[in-house]
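Exercise 7.
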Amino acid sequence: MSPGISVPAARQPMAVFAPGKLPAIPCDTLLTTGRYRTQNGVMLIYKILREAEWAELSTRGIFSGAPVDIKDGFVHFSTAAQLPGTLAKHFINETGLTLVACDSTAMATDLKWEPSRGGDLFPHLYRSLGSSDILWTRPIEAGPDGHETGPLE
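Solution. The predicted structure, written as tokens, is:
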């Protein structure tokens, strides 16, 4: 038997799946396990958009994704805890960024939580992002220690 990757199953002991055979974990499962729960049972997820991407979403009302999203077949999101790492890894020294906040439960039908950086579960949206998905936006400012997102959740 080949080594596997551990993925938490809802209210069960750890399940082991072979590499490349990882199941998508539904949003409601994550919320009920408590690992990603926020106040009032609503968990915000975040998308970082570059100027041209934000302009596309603002103008068209829909965004199919950044080049990496299109290549991977889904729109990448981050939780509040994952956001600093995403900014540091993919947006270092970039300016003109916009932070988009969405309610993960409202997008749950098309949202899958899949292992990524460090084995952490990241939200992936398997459809285009529409303006109706957005709760709020704000510019991401450049600060002395990197990007400043302001308060999250």
